[in-house]
Specification:
The complex is a heterodimer of chains A (178) and B (182).
Chain A (H helix, E strand, L loop, with lengths): L4 H6 L10 H19 L13 H14 L20 H18 L15 H10 L6 H7 L2 H10 L4 H11 L4 H4 L1
Helix pairs in contact in A: 4-5
Chain B lengths: L1 H15 L3 H23 L2 H18 L9 H23 L4 H11 L10 H11 L3 H11 L5 H8 L3 H21 L1
The chains are: A mainly alpha (178), B mainly alpha (182).
Keywords (chain A): Membrane, Transmembrane, Transmembrane helix
Chain lengths: 178, 182
C-alpha cells in the first residue's frame, strides 16, 4: 500500500509542540541566515592567545595550590600574579596606596610595625624582589567601595612631586614626550 | 553519562579535601572554556588572565559552599560570568565612565591589540554586540561563539529557555541591522 502525504502526517507520534513553533522556527532561521549573509558566513571571534598560554596558566595555578597560597580564606588577600611585567605600575600603585592608607587611617602603635615605619623604597623593593605584580583589577579587589571613594577625594599628588618621582624612577623617558 | 557524574562527584569530594591534584585536574578541564567565556566579556587577554585566575582562586576557596544542586560547570560558569562583569564594573568605576563606555573603549583598542587578529567584519561584529543590553550580549555570545545549548545556558543564567531563545533572536536581528547600517 502506498502512503499518501496526508497519511504520513496522520502517522505522527504523540509528541506535542509549543504553540506557533513552526512560525517562530522559520522566523529564527531567517534571522540567522540574514546575519550570516551580512557577515559572509559564520564569524569567528578573532581573538588570539600567547603561545603555550594554557600550559603556563595550568603551571601557575598548580604552583599556587602547591604552595597553599590559595588556602588563605581572607577576602582581601592579595592575588599574586607570576611572570608579570607590570612591576613599575605596581610599585607606583603600591606606594600610592600606602600613602593613602597612612593619610586615611593614621593609626600607630609602639608594639607593631606601621606603615609609618616603612619607606616607599622598601615597599617597592619588596614587590620587585618577589616578582609580585598586581593588576589594577587586583588592586581594586583589595579596596572596598568606601575606600575607593576616600581615595578619590583624598589622593592628591603635587605635580612637582610626581615629576620628581618619574624622573627618579622611570627608565623609559618617552612618557615625558607624550 | 553516569561515568561523568561519578567522576565529577569524585573530583568535588577531592577538591573539598584540599587535594591539589584534583585542583590541577579542575584547572586543566575547565580553563579553556572559562577563558573564552571571560574573554568574550572582557575582550583583552591580560584582563581575561587576571579574571580567570581569580575565578579558580574563588572556586578553590569556596568549594565547600558548592552543594551540588547544579552541575559543577554551571557553578563555574556562573562564577566566571560574575567575576568578568564585576571586573568591568570596577574598571569603569575606576575610570569614572560607564561600563558601556568602557566596552566601546576596549573594542576601539582591539585594533592595536597584539592578541586580536580579527578582520574588519569581526571588529564590526564586536561593535554591534556592544550596542546590545548586557544580558542580550551574554546570551548572543554564549550561543553564537561558545555553542552553549539553551538548556545549559538556562541553568547558568537562571533564565527560562523560552526567554533565552527570544533574547538571542532579538539580538541577532539587532546585530544584523547594525551591521547593515554601519
Amino acid at each position: 500500500m502506498i502512503m499518501k502525504p496526508k497519511d504520513l502526517h496522520n502517522d505522527k507520534p504523540n509528541f506535542k509542540l509549543p504553540d506557533g513553533y513552526f512560525n517562530s522556527f522559520a522566523e529564527e532561521l531567517s534571522a540567522q541566515i540574514a546575519l550570516e549573509k551580512v557577515l559572509g558566513g559564520k564569524a569567528k571571534l578573532g581573538f588570539d592567545i600567547p603561545e603555550g598560554y594554557f600550559e603556563s596558566f595550568e603551571g601557575r595555578m598548580s604552583t599556587l595550590s602547591r604552595k597553599r597560597i590559595l588556602n588563605n580564606n581572607t577576602e582581601n588577600t592579595k592575588v599574586i600574579k607570576l611572570n608579570s611585567k607590570k612591576w613599575l605600575w605596581t610599585a607606583a600603585s603600591i606606594a600610592a596606596i600606602a600613602l593613602v592608607i597612612i593619610s586615611v587611617f593614621p593609626w600607630s602603635t609602639a608594639e607593631s610595625p606601621t606603615f609609618d615605619s616603612l619607606e616607599i623604597a622598601e615597599i617597592e623593593a619588596y614587590v620587585e624582589d618577589r616578582d609580585i605584580a598586581f593588576s589594577d583589577y587586583e588592586l581594586g579587589d583589595m579596596l572596598t567601595d568606601d575606600a575607593f571613594e576616600s581615595l578619590e577625594s583624598t589622593a592628591y599628588i603635587e605635580d612637582a612631586a610626581l615629576v620628581e618621582y618619574l624622573e627618579n624612577n622611570l627608565e623609559d623617558g618617552s612618557i615625558f614626550i607624550e | 553519562m553516569i561515568e561523568t557524574e561519578i567522576s565529577e562527584q569524585r573530583l568535588i569530594s577531592l577538591l573539598k579535601e584540599g587535594d591539589t591534584g584534583a585542583f590541577s585536574t579542575l584547572v586543566k578541564q575547565f580553563q579553556e572554556r572559562l577563558y573564552w567565556h571571560i574573554r568574550n566579556i572582557v575582550k583583552n587577554h591580560d584582563d581575561t588572565d587576571d579574571v580567570l585566575q581569580n575565578v579558580f582562586i574563588k572556586v578553590y576557596r569556596n568549594i565547600d559552599k558548592f552543594k551540588g544542586d547544579s552541575k559543577l560547570y554551571t557553578w563555574l560558569y556562573r562564577i566566571a560570568s560574575n567575576e568578568a562583569i564585576t571586573f568591568i564594573n570596577k574598571r569603569a568605576k575606576q575610570q569614572s565612565i560607564t561600563s558601556e563606555e568602557l566596552q566601546i573603549r576596549t573594542i576601539n583598542n582591539l585594533e592595536s591589540d597584539v592578541y586580536f587578529e580579527g578582520t574588519e567584519i569581526q571588529l564590526k561584529l564586536q561593535r554591534a554586540i556592544a550596542t546590545l543590553p548586557s544580558k542580550q550580549q551574554q546570551v548572543f555570545q554564549m550561543k553564537y561563539f561558545e555553542d552553549i545549548t539553551y538548556e545549559t545556558m538556562s541553568e547558568i543564567l537562571e533564565t527560562s529557555v523560552g526567554a533565552l531563545k527570544s533574547s538571542y533572536h532579538i539580538a541577532t536581528k539587532k546585530i544584523t541591522e547594525h551591521l547593515k547600517n554601519n
